[in-house]
Amino acid sequence: MKLEQNEQPLLFSSTEISDIFFSEYLSELPGEYLKIYLYIIFLSKYGKDIKLTDLSKKLNIPLKTINDGFKFLEDRNLITKKSTGYVITNLQEFTLHNLYTPNLTLSKEKIDQTAKSQSKAKAIEHINNMYFQGIMGPSWYNDIDLWFRKYNFDEQVMIALFDYCYKRSALHRNYVQTVAEAWASNKVKTWNDLDSYYQKQENMNKIKKSIAKKLGKYNGLTQYEEAYIENWILNFGYDMNIIEIALKRTTFKQNPTFEYINNIITDWHDRKLTTPSEVNAFLEQRKKQEKDTKNLKTQVNKANYEQRKYSNLDFLYANNTEKKED
Prior knowledge:
Layout: H1 19-24, H2 31-45, H3 52-59, H4 63-75, E1 79-82, E2 85-88, H5 91-99, H6 108-114, H7 118-131, H8 138-151, H9 155-167, H10 173-185, H11 191-214, H12 223-235, H13 240-248, H14 258-270, H15 276-325
Antiparallel strand pairs: 1-2
């Protein structure tokens, strides 16, 4: 017996999207790319063939954005490029395959069984309930378990990581990973480490605002200018007391640049000057040296002038003698 299903007209048909998409991918897709993805899912259901230029006109999206969007979707494994076009990824099958790859923590249940302590499992459950409304995507469990092992975060730091990203409306994998790496690079492992890191960041932000105000940069600092300041604070170990000495020296220069200020501060660091008193002592010593050099130069010029004057008198005297002899 052959069973057939009558194709429904467009008015009564619907396009299905996996829940995995909402839990794993939606937050990472920019608006234009989301439009592209939804529309090509709709087209793929009917086996339609469409050119990128036509897609650009249909969605009223620039062709460059269409190309960038396809590259983005391909990088996120939402579509796969073939010789004849693109295939929409079956997200359920793709996720299932990743979950059951050997040597990975496979699921929430598996994490609960293999977690080193019950507190880690509770931390993961808290993240699920607090920031994902209890429907956290399966791959997040793998990521959290990986970050526990890779960065040695304690449970409070892991929860704080998700809280930080959630409050910035950036609870997607790439952003969470970037923040985690930043914390790890600053040797954050425990809650005390994180608290100390926050204090340093708060102090740095205050210094940045103070510098911007003193230099009249009311529109804020550029990314490169902030990088200079972070280098002075984090790598040189300088605080505002030393930096302000350098800022005051810009009053002697017209339109001073950050590179000019950086050269001054870098020179102090190279000379191993670590306190304001050491910097001021160095500046006083250099000022005295410049004054002594100027005085010495004046004395030399004066001596040369006297010598020239003496030589000229001799010349006149000789001429006078010759005239007398005549």
